[in-house]
Structure formats: C-alpha cells, structure tokens
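Lesson 9: reading folded outputs for more than one chain in a single document. The general rule is that every protein is listed as its sequence immediately followed by its structure tokens, and records are never interleaved. Here is the first one.
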Amino acid sequence: MRALVLSHRLADVAQRQTFRELHALGWSVTVALPGGTADTDGALRLAPIPVSGLLAEPGALRWQARAIRRLLNDVRPDLVHVDEEPGSPGALTAVREADRLGVPTVVFSGQSLPRERGFLERRRYASTLTRVRGVIGGNRLATGLLAAAAPDVLAATIPQSGITIGPAPTRTGSEPLRIAFVGRLVPERGADRLLKACGQLMGPWTLVVAGTGPEQEGLEELGQRLGLASRTRWRGVLSRAQVQALWAEIDCLVVPSRSTITWTEAWAPVLVEAMAHEVACVVSGEGALPEIVGDAGIVVETDEELLVALQGLLVTPERRTTLGQAARSRVLERFVDAAVARGLDAFWRQVTAAFPARAAP
C-alpha cells in the first residue's frame, strides 16, 4: 500500500518516527514537504513542493497545485493523508488534486473549540471537507467538530504524532509528596489553583514550579501569603534535558488548566512525558486532559477535588506508585510512535476499503 502525506510539520526530522513505523505495517510512505530538496529518511521518501508565503506561518502557505499533481501521478498513492488544518490553502489544494485523480484523502485537525473563520477560510474549510473520505481529530473534541462538519465520512481520534520513550525508570519512595507544575504562568494554566490547594495540605510536601509568564510575580506573592515559600522552588524555564531530569525528582505532576472561550488543552506533551516516566498525574477535566490520562490519572473538576486528590497521594505513597505504573502502560498502549502508527494503519485501511479510489480518467 502506498500513502502520500502532505505536512509542513514533518520538515522537522524529530517528528517523523510515527510515519517511519508505518513501513513495518506494509505502507510505502512519501512525505510532501514545503520546499527543500528530494531525499530519503529511512523508509520515507521526501518530496519537496514549492510553496508561497512565509514558512513561519505554515497555515497560510500556498502549495503549488501543479507540483502536487505531478507527485500524485508519480507516486500513485492508495491514500493521501493531509496533515494540515482543513481551512488552510495547502489542505484544500492537496485534497482537490487527489480528488481529481480519484485518490481517497483523509485530513487531520487539532482544532478543539468552535471558532469564527473569515470568509475565505470558511469556504476552504467547507470545500475541503466535502471532498475528503475520512477525518482525524487529535482529540475527541476535534473529532466531534470535524464529524459535525462532515457527517457522512469516516472519523477517528488519533494523536498527531507519537513519542519515543526509554526503559522504565527506577523510582524510589519519598516521605514528602514531591509535586510539580510545568507550564507557562498565565491564568488559563491554573497555577493559582495548585498553590491554593498546597496551602491546605496536611503533611510533608514540596512544590516545583517550572515556567515563566506574566502571572509569575502575582503567583509568587500568593505563595508568600499562603506561607508556601519554604516549600516552593521557582525554577523558571527549563531546557529539554532539565525537564527530562525533573521527572526523577518528583512524584506528582499537576495540570490544573481552565478553559476559556478561545483556548483549551488540545494536547499536553509534558503530561504524556511525565506519564511515561511513571509520574502520578492529577489533571483538571478540561479539553483533552481527561482522555489523555484516562483511568491512569486523577481527574478533578473543582478546587476542592484537587485538594482531596493531593491529600490522598500525600498520605498514600503506594497510590503514587500504582498510578505511575498505570500511566506508563497507557502511554505504551496509546501514545508511543508505534501505537499511533497502528491507529493510522487501521484507519487508512478502513478508508481505502470503504471508499476505493476511482480509476483516473
């Protein structure tokens, strides 16, 4: 089976492992990238497509239709996977050219909240979704929006990409509950909720806050008023290596986000990484957070529930271990590159079986 994937994101070598994994599942994958030169990456064939626009604004790039048409005729794919938002010019161009050749297409979206679109984007969105044979949402909210706009096509929820994880960590028990918050310090991330909960905990605990933002000064003042200064470390922005080292230093990651009209947690890579390192995770019931942790984490809806969850982890160290092990198992089952590739393989085959490509005229 042959697949053509159109994606600006896969210009980053680190993002390609999910699609490399598809080779072992019987797919020959060609990746169309904006600009660059023809190349290979393991089993992947890389094909450059001329674009106009700024690479810093990938959603507005205009991919050259003639080059996509030539590539389609060259590859003769069984399916085209468009890894671009359906309202983008690139998505419409790719879907339109594939449709002309009778090649079934699927399109990915991570958009998790309804939003107003301008006239041209609204037309592109509708035109793209009338031509696709399948839609993939990065979470259930995104899938629901796609299914509402394209109710007659197949739909699936699959992460946009997977992660690579190392061997299971060796974790040692600790007397205090070692809590962490990792993220930008803005109101929607909810660090204030965590500080208020910590101020009411009974027993030994410590807190690491990793990140900066406009709310930092106010949050530090809140911590002072609550008497948390001696137990709280403000680490600022951490490098990738420092974040990786952090997981061995903590027992619990808290993601206490709150949604707004224009923002919600569509994906949380830091959360998935923590889970892979057997860190017990407590999250708010916002956006995609509940479906990421499933029953391998604690989902809270109110500030009181957050306090109860943390107090429970504080007094029951074995609960931290159980949750951490379940979290890693969930990542291995759903979020590593091989697992995401299996999801794509199953959906791609479902689409090609249900909507076989028409013979080109």
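And here is the second record, again sequence then tokens.
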Amino acid sequence: MPSRILTVDDSKTVRIIVRKAFRAFDCEIIEAANGVEGLAAAAASRPDLIILDITMPVMDGVEMLMKLKADPALKPIPVMMLTAEGGREHVLKIAKLGIRDYIVKPFKEDTLVEKVGRIIPLKQTSEIQAKPRSIVDPADILVVDDKPAIVSQIRDGLKHTKWTIHSAVSQAEALEYCAKQTPDLMIVSLSLPDDSAFALYRSVRNNPKSKGTPFFGLTVKTETAMQHAAQQVGITAVITKPIDLIELESKMAKALNLDTSLRYFEIQGDSIIMRLPEACLPAVLTDVGHYMKAKLPEAVDGGINQAIIDVHLLTGVDMGIIRLLMQTTQTCRELGMNYAMVGNPRLTEACREFEDTKEWTFCETTDAAREHLARVAAAAGSRAGFQLA
C-alpha cells in the first residue's frame, strides 16, 4: 500500500517540488493550499505524514497544527513543518505542540526525502517492480571487504546462482556504489578500519532508498563482542569466518524473502519431481517440508497424479531425512498420487539399517521412475477394467 503524504502550502511551486521529490517512490501525494483545506484533507484521507507550511492565508500552519492536535482522530498523524530561514526559531517555539521535524525553505529534494524517510517508510517504485521474488531471479549483492580472498570465496561459492556479486573495499567506495544503485543485499566486514562498518550501516539505514536493504555483518567466529555489537544495532545477520557458503546462501534467500521451492520442486510432463540436495542440512529439510505440503496438493489440483522423489545425491540418511521422506510418501498416499523414489546403491544399503526404511526400493534414474509409474498406472487401469467387466 502506498504511503500517503499531505502537503499543505499556499505556494503551488512548493507543492510541485514536493510531488516531484517523491515521484520515484510508492507515494500518494495529496495537496491543500491553506489550513482549512488541509484539515479537511487530513480528515478525509488520514495521511501517513503531513508536510505543513507555517505562513499561509485563511488559516496558517500554527493554527492548523493546534486543531490537528486537538482532534483525537488526527492527533497521531506526524507533522513536518516548512519554514523560511528566518522562521526557524518560531518553529522551535511551536515544537512543543508536537512536530516530528522541520525543514527550511528553500530546500533540496534529497533533503526532504531523507527527512521524510526517517518518519515513514518509503519504497522506490522501481525497486518494488524489480525486487527478486524467487531463488532463480537475478539479484545484486554488494560485498564490502578489504580482503580480496573473501570476496572471491563468496563470488565462487554463489556462482551457481543468478546473483551478481559486486565489491567495495571501504565505506566510501560502498556509499559511492549505493548512490548509483541500491543493492538487494549487503555483506560487510565488521573489521573494516575505524568502525566504518557500523558507520556504513547507519548511513544505509538513514537513506530511504536503502532503509530496508538486508545488511549482513562478516566477522571471525571468536569475535563474540563484535557479533554482539552487530546484533545490538540491528544488523540483519552475522556470518562468521570461515564462511559456510551453504548457510550463507540460505540466510541470504531468507533475508530477501525468496521463494526457494524451485530448488526442490519441478513439474515435468505428468509428474512433479521433488529433489533433495547432497547437503541436507536441517534448514533445507525444514524448507522442503514446508513447500511439500503446498506443492503436492497444487500438483494434484493441476491434474498431475504422480510424484518422483529424487534422492540420488544423498550418500546416507538420518532421522531428519527419513521423517521428511515418510511425510512425503504419506502425503502422496493421502492425495491418491502414485510415487517412485530415485536413489543409489549406497542409499539402499543405508536404508536397510532402519526398521521404517528397510523395505524401500529405489529406481536408478528419473526415466526409470517414470517407466515404473507407467507400469503402475497401466496395472491399475487393467484392474479397473477387469472389475467393470
């Protein structure tokens, strides 16, 4: 939902400047030329913020502010006052009536946007449209570290994704990058000189364009004080060195709120295929289990009645994997789906060590699984024909 801003000023030029300043943001700008119109507009639209000029005909900004604060329904709306250079002291005197900030005319658009962004959330329209939605979408990641080896490690570890890794070696270089474009996520070394990582974090959070950008701190595992400080200021996540790249990718996907189901589920012809990766960490199993509960019913609803559970990359099983596979096969049975599992000889041997899995059989390939399912379907059809006869 767009942020709603009411600008109350008798100068049409100022109102145009305000509208222009927020053109790139998901905002609705409402205009009024004096305090009387402003009160009516505030009551009708209930804006998220009022930008209020002091000197106006009919009813000035001070009187309108007093009436706003006297109305219980309008009192909570934050107000930013506009004043001429000579009126600054006047604004400070009326600040006790309840204003969130003020800005002196003439003002720059960037200054107005920055001040407003501290009061209400601002989302750039272009970012809303371009924001990555799934794990297969492109994304721009900025890594800020003065150690090239770390940047290379992250770039190599994520090269299987469509994420582009950009790099900067200092706070100044990172801010220069952010001035040109807002990254989807930042990974910043907390050991940059002079606490500049924390200064960079404050700059990012104070800028409306990057206010919501996930910000990861990077530090060595033994720097517990640094990790605590990062958590205290609100850094999105702390990644410790040596970097677990699987964990890093998982945390990045979660911070970006990406749909990761395409990693594990795919529709091929008349089958839905569920694939488990070689590294089945607990977070992966949770992820797959969450999506499985929705993806299998969606497949059935779309006319697909068979599933292939591909676990051939696994070299062994544990109780977490077994539990997930049992839930999956049980869900298939409840939905009336035929299913087959694809595995390998080592996996077959591992499953024989568990009571619940010792009878499991695996096809060698997905093609073999399809052939098996075709035979099952044909046999079911024959039985149905025999019963009808």
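What the second record shows: The chain has 15 helices and 14 strands.
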